[in-house]
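Retro notes (design track)

What went well: tokenization of the new backbones is finally stable.
What didn't: we kept losing track of which sequence belonged to which structure.
Fix going forward: every design gets posted as structure first, then sequence, in one message. First example under the new rule, 258 residues:
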């Protein structure tokens, strides 16, 4: 990948960090920026030095959504030909834990980006919302599906039709975000959680995500069959032997990630 224009990336203690970096536009997501975010995620997903990926935003906000200026003159045909959501779809094929640390405005495509992550931590002042209806459009990067999966049809429709802003406490109450953390502690808290997950046996973490993702797609029995195959697979890892032996030896395990 060429040097990204709109994201900053780094690796710290097995945590791959991606920071949205277009603060003068509230990190509005243009197509180049989305591609850079997804490419950075994919690179970290493939990188053995990275166990967990953390996404956050530079400046006053995580993201005010897709770049409205860029979309103004779009037509159905230009959208069909550009297929802008092909990049977004790649996010759901990532294997490693993705954590969003959000603050300020988390609107439209910014909210969809956060919802595409596995865990979301937010500051008390964070405002979430889907204002697309007021622009004569609607969410297009999974918002109607992921919000409905999280909070149910009746509540999702109200948020999506009104475009109202949702406070961090409402989002927490609705089960959309994991935790609310004071702004000056958000980064440290998220890195601590990421560090704890990074220290777990890597294949367990990976196959747990894989199984949980099936919960929305498969019948209960098919989901349980899938879970079971993942469970059996973990008996092929050295971390399973080490984890169980360490328990019996009454010592701390040393995991190798395989
Ligand atoms: C393009 C944006 C933008 C956006 C802000 N800016 N949001 N540019 N796309 N989504 C720009 C403004 O034009 C302005 O540029 C600068 O950022 C600062 O914004 P202000 O509006 O002056 O700031 P403020 O008054 O503090 O209001 C902040 C705000 C507001 C509440 C976040 O900007 C806002 O409502 N933005 C739009 C939010 C929205 O509708 N999002 C949904 C987008 S559609 P200048 O040049 O004047 O300084 C979407 C569809 C997703 O996300 C589909 C799938 C991807």
């Amino acid at each position: 990948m060429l040097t990204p224009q709109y994201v900053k990336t780094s690796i710290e203690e097995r945590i791959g960090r991606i920071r949205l970096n277009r603060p003068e536009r509230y990190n509005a997501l243009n197509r180049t920026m989305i591609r850079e975010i997804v490419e950075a995620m994919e690179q970290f997903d493939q990188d053995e030095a990275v166990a967990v990926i953390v996404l956050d935003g530079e400046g006053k906000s995580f993201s005010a959504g897709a770049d409205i200026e860029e979309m103004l003159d779009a037509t159905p045909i230009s959208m069909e030909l550009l297929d802008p959501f092909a990049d977004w779809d790649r996010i759901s094929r990532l294997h490693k834990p993705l954590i969003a640390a959000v603050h300020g405005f988390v609107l439209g495509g910014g909210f969809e980006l956060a919802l595409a992550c596995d865990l979301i931590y937010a500051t008390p002042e964070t405002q979430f919302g889907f204002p697309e209806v007021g622009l004569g459009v609607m969410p297009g990067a999974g918002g109607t599906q992921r919000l409905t999966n999280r909070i149910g049809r009746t509540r999702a429709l109200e948020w999506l039709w009104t475009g109202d802003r949702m406070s961090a406490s409402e989002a927490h109450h609705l089960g959309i975000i994991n935790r609310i953390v004071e702004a000056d502690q958000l980064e440290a808290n998220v890195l601590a959680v990421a560090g704890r997950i990074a220290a777990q046996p890597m294949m367990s973490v990976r196959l747990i995500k894989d199984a949980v993702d099936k919960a929305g797609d498969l019948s209960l029995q098919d989901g349980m069959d899938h879970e079971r195959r993942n469970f059996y697979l973990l008996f092929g890892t050295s971390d399973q032997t080490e984890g169980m032996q360490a328990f019996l030896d009454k010592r701390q395990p040393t995991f190798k990630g395989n």
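Added context from the reviewer: The chain is about 45% helix and 15% strand.
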